[in-house]
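Q: A reviewer asked whether we had any structural model of the full assembly, not just the individual parts. We don't, so I'm hoping you can provide one. Inputs are below.
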Amino acid sequence: MADPLKILDDLSARARREDSPSIDVSSRVILRLSREARAPVWPMALVASGTAVAALAVLNISRPLFEMLMDPWSVFFVMAVHVLP
Amino acid sequence: MDSAETVSEEDQQDIADSLAGDGEGYARLVRRYQGKVAAQMWRFTRDSMILDQLVQDVFVEAYMSLKGFRGRAPFLHWLRRVATRVGFRYWKSRARKEEREEALKETILNLTAAPETLTPVEAADTLYQLLGKLPPKDRLVLTLFYFEQCDIHEISARAGWNRPLVKVRLHRARKKLKSLFEEAGMGRERDG
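A: Here is a predicted structure for the entire assembly that you could use as a starting point for your response.
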């Protein structure tokens, strides 16, 4: 009786002679990419640059306040002006 | 197998154009390789509508990871790995939905007709149905080995499995297939 692996060999040899259907997907691929690929790229770049600008702005604004609060003389001066009569 | 060992100049140019956002550059790559990719994906389905979808999926996925293409081997080699991944995922999604064991004996018994009497299309259909009875991992290793004539090294590259694992899976898949044949009453030596 036939060896299964021999059958598989013979079957594959014949199957490989088959021609696959001819197709042209180039325009549909480009269409899909225009919908699927562009979206994640631009918003992410915008978000990243927007986040960086916002972070710099916050740092620039808060730095003088932070430095002032760390300086005891500045704190005393502010309290003297606003709290003492 | 594919003979060239480096990326051709026209591929390099089209890849660079694609990465720069030129859709026509990528369309040229698709037109150049869609025939070979279709032939490979025809191992994963016998339905031409699904074939069309799978080939599209391969090129969409390839574009998404094009930045990761190092250019150390021909573009087609890399594309075949992407195609294998897409095909394997398709099988796994189908395997969850389908009952694999249906009509198993019938398919095997149809093989009593000697392979040499079958047309290439009949042979490919039978082989596709036969391997479709196996779990996706076994099916992939046998499809690449028998249908695509890949060696261990190539299967390892395409499937993303290391070589010892490929050898083990190939051995187990063949064994499983043999036992399926035996269950169907084929492949055993007659007594006496």
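A: Points you may want to mention in the reply: The radius of gyration of chain A is 36 Å. Residues 49 and 73 of chain A are 38 Å apart (CA to CA).
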